[in-house]
Protein 1
Amino acid sequence: MLEILIVGAVSSAIYAMLAVGFTLIFGVARVLNLAHGSFYALGAYGTYFFTAHLKWPLLLAAIAAIAVVAVFGVFVERVLVRPMRASQLAVLMITLAVALVVEQAMFLTFGSEYRNVPAFVDAKFHIGGVDVAGARLLALGVGAAVIAALWLFIQHTRLGSAILAISQDPQAAQYMGIPSDRIFTVVMALSAALAALAGILAGPFLTVQPTMWLLPIVKAFAIVVVGGLGSIPGSILAALLLGYAETIVGYTVSTSWTEIVSVAATLLMLVVRPAGFFGKRAAF
Amino acid sequence: MFNKPVDLFGAAAFIAFMAVLPLIFPGNYLIGVLTVSVIYGIWAVSWDFMSGLTGRENFGHSLFIGVGAYTAGFLNTTLGVNGWWSLPAAMVMAVLFALLMGLPTLRLKGPYFALAMLSGAVIMQRLMLIFWEQTGGEEGINGLTPLIRNQLGFYYFALGVLVVTTALLMWLARSNWGLILRAIRGDEATCQAAGINVTYYKIASLMISAAFAGAGGAMYAHYQLQVSPQLFAVVTSITIITMVYVGGMATIYGPVGGAILLVLLTELLRNFGEWRLMIYSCTLIGILFFLPNGLIAPTWRRVRASLGAKE
Amino acid sequence: MSATLLEVRNLNKHFGGLHAVKNVGFDIVRGEVVGILGPNGAGKTTLYNLLTGFIPPDAGATIRFQGQNILGVAPHRIAGLGISRTFQLCRPFVGLSVLENVLVGALGAGGAKIAGNLDARARELLQRVGLGGKEAVPVEVLSYGDQRRLEIARALAARPALLLLDEPFAGLGSGEIDDLSRLIRQVHADEGLTVLLIEHKLREFMRLVDRVIALDFGEVIAEGLPEAIVKHPAVIEAYIGRDNTLDLGAGHAA
């Protein structure tokens, strides 16, 4: 029981990081970024590369990986997404194409075998009679901290208010002189960095292979739909729900069913309540 | 719009070319490649009919393909039914799935419909793996019997199905059906105000699209003589969409050329082995940016203009 | 065949806390041209959306068309029963030609209702609205005034009994307004249509309508002949505030 509580919390934290980044860029720029899963993958692969091939210390490798992914995210937004922004479907196609290119690039560079992302904390901890890997606890802790920091940032800084303004009413924000384009870039970098961080934290205990981008994006989409597009509290709540739902299913039924939980939840939500729990913009 | 003699001439020339090619360059390798390209053509044309005309892009077309293929697999191996029943059965199953998926998802806005269909395909792929005892899991179903033992014979059959499919769907697209679908693409609310039952048309066109995709899936199964969960993969759906983009969205005939071109290209790139999919994906990005109207249809329009000028 | 074409009683609509349409009730007699007047936000388009089934009214409403209850009927069915509408912002079917746009209108109401060739009917309608010769033109290229005419042709294609026009003169210059106004009068006479017309420009109204229903904040504040409405204190207040004069020539208010 305690194990479920902890493992569920860890999953939720990772999913929350993924979902919040995804919902941020959607809320601000109306971009459904299917390459978001690639940022997650690149975070993990980047860290692997820097540590295994360049022999850098882990912390440095992680920071470098996040930075590289953030820059890549900005590149994708500026060069590939921006010209297509008139059509949401075009953006969907182009980001999906990017995801495929990244997948193939990882495949060509690193092969299809599972790679190893080292953990920050190797120790195992004993909590209330349950063995928990330090890496999982770290993921939980860092994830929660980062999301809290992001929330504070959005609520209490000028940039944060600008982000909120644009996501609520893009035209009004423009009239008020808020530099939307520059903010898209910042948000994309943030979103990518969050995804990369999630990949780095989860890498040690989740599989790292070229197709690892697909399930995270399906789940991020699931969470964002359930929680409500553009709503950060919604994403966090939905991430918790889905993280725990998956964990419970995994422990009680079987692990192979876990992947279906989020996808099925999405479909159900889209059908029953397309605006999600807190969404302002329905998928309708 | 494809109603002049020059168009019939072009179609006939294309069919003749495709029929004669394996006779000029004999060998099972080429026949195999052409067969696969023709089946992809069926899939691409079926996608274009619904998504191209209505503008509601379906990212989960592989769902119908996989359903058709697995239906064929089950009927043929587990139930021992003659392979020729696979086609109608596959079409029925695919249509049922289209109804099942379409009813709740077609009222969603574009990107959400696309992703909902994608989710559907992902779920099916997962289910095939979860119920591995019934479906054979990763290995899938093996040992299907071929429909026509002669490779060339099967190729001509597939080519025939492609021609019939394309002709039928083009006819529908040019009829009042197609007009309504294109109007739906323009503005759904106005369509409703004009008295058109938009939901009916969207679902019906999805079902038609699914039927042909499923048929293609069954044919593919009886060609490869095996069925695997890979058929449900995202890559399949995206490949088909790429073929339609290359061919020319909403033209119905363009995707035929797109499919054949891309499959042939992929074969030529065999030497590049692992780089194939990478080149493919980069091509997609290139097309989206530089040739949004595609390659095949605009080229044909130019050709027929120069030919038409003579007539 | 009763003279009352449309009967509306106790029509209410809440959007969350906003009472957008309040206890609206009226009768529309066959063959009338009735104007719906109201400043922006008065609930006019919402009224149309309620009548045509795009949004459901609050409980307790009655809407009868040709004696038949049309509450809860899907929009496309309502159109099929004989109510055609246009939209405030012109919405032609992009990607289709002018002729195709009208054809869709004819197809929509069930081609069976229309005897004979749909194509011929569409072309005839285009001639009537003054778009003859532009059949093959893609709609994106049309001027706004022509798009308005196209909308009317499309709405007429289904041989409606009741035509709902939503601010047909919005965005048009005064010459175009006169032309369109004449067209509406003509079509009304030729086809024996009943027309409901939303506008907030008074001048055009006066010449076109037999009767006016004035709305403000979702309620009917006055009903009657145009000359009487214009002098009605509630209407004046809604439009101009406390000013006693309402200049017919000035056109719009608020």
Note: The CA atoms of residues 60 and 191 of chain C lie 34 Å apart.
Protein 2
Amino acid sequence: MQDVFIVSTEEEQFNLFYGNFRHLPIHFSWAKDLDSAIKYLELENPAFVFLISDDIDLLLNWVEKYNHLKIKIPFLCFTGYTHTKQSKELWAAGAIDIIFLPMNIKELEYTLKTLVIAIEVDKTPGLDIVEGRLEDFNLVHLIQTFEEGKKSGILLMEDGIKKGEVEFLNGQVVNAVYSNRDPLEAVTIMSAWKKGHFKAKQGKPTRRKRIALANQQVIMECLNYISIQEKLLNSLPTKNKMLFPSPLINFEELSPRDRNQLLSFKDGNTLEGVMEMFTGNLNQLLRKMDKWSEKKWLVEKTEYNAILKKMDAEENKSSFKRMLEKMFEKAKPSNDAGNFEAKYSYLEKTDVVQTVTKKSSQFKNYKRVGEFLNLVEEAE
Amino acid sequence: MIEVLEIPVFVTNPSFNEKYFGGYPQLSLPGYQNSQYITLELDKNSMVIIYLMEIKDSQINTALCDRIIPLSPFCMMLLDGETFVVNNFHEIYKERYESPLICIYPNKDSDFDLTYVKNVVIQNNKNLLIDFDPDDKQLLQSILAKALKHIFEL
């Protein structure tokens, strides 16, 4: 909240601000002339003084007196139309800005926001900057650091072309921005960034609170996201292996997003290369890729060439033979299961959704259950 | 090294923590309102941690549950309180988790409607319905013995 002291002979001018801009984080006070204002300035110590008068001579008098008294509070002058010479005098006397009234309310609001509120954010004390590499401290560590120190500020994250921000208020994560993701999702995505840089700036957050979860819950979400990502990466081919989309894929049957993602492998690409350029939720992409490699939609170079060769051979068969084969295709047992599966895999969409959200049981040590059973029975 | 088994128990109302498990010392789970845990030391190397977790508006606290449930041999659901809350919870649970669900219910002073549990929940062979005596001083041990036996035999 900023305090603004209005000096104007007309109460109407005070009402203009008080009546129209109550929703802004500004508290307005009013004095009828500069002499009465001076009494209160020391007590109230406002952030700004607005000197408002249509009479330019009165305004110049006030400014002269203001400077004579060596008041250090910055001031703005509001007046009617003035000549350039008089405006120059006001500028020379140290006015931050000269605003000509009457003015459109929206325009005036914008002026207040840029001059008064924006300056408040810039003036926040302790604007310390801390920088580092994400290899050394990931977002989870950084959240804990902010929490321990109960710090407020903005954390700027950068991983190649990907850039995001996390905002803290008294150590609590309150907002995050990354691509067009929801704030919580943005935090979880950024928590998995393992290379790049971060920059922490202390100060008040500039956006409103949009993450209601406590830090511990946010960290749990992040750890969950990271562990899922690690599992998915382990199940996929190694990061630097060149992959190609299978020539058997019918791209027309795919959703535009799937099509674009698969086409990023068109001339061969590594998982690492795709990950570097991908700006969305990486886990979603990895899940899809896991499914695609299972269905043999993403194949290695040798396999890719073999499929192409087979397709060429098919093309070169006589048209009569192909027609016969097509006619008896249904009667024939499916000897090309992979091809069939690739062709109709879009029918399994519901299963894909289920496997995406379902958490499988990772408990496998049933021997330990037996041991615990014996111990519980003994204790009974 | 201490071997630990972590078992989540879902309750519809935090007051049941005291009502049924008041005989065991309970500690609150930091950061999670209305969630308590009980530790049962079976011997110097083995321990069971029971997480008493409130089902809030039949929702699952995904952050915590996603960490604990997949690593647990099974989960337990206390059948007391609003029947529809428990039934809704089961619907969400079965969509999200594969771990067996052991339903426990007090064998006296309870008017909980078991129709859904008997006809739907325990139709899955992995799940089990266990009744317990609320006055039993060794309540958790007796429930655990039955539950672990069921899981071991699966």
Note: The CA atoms of residues 61 and 67 of chain B lie 10 Å apart.
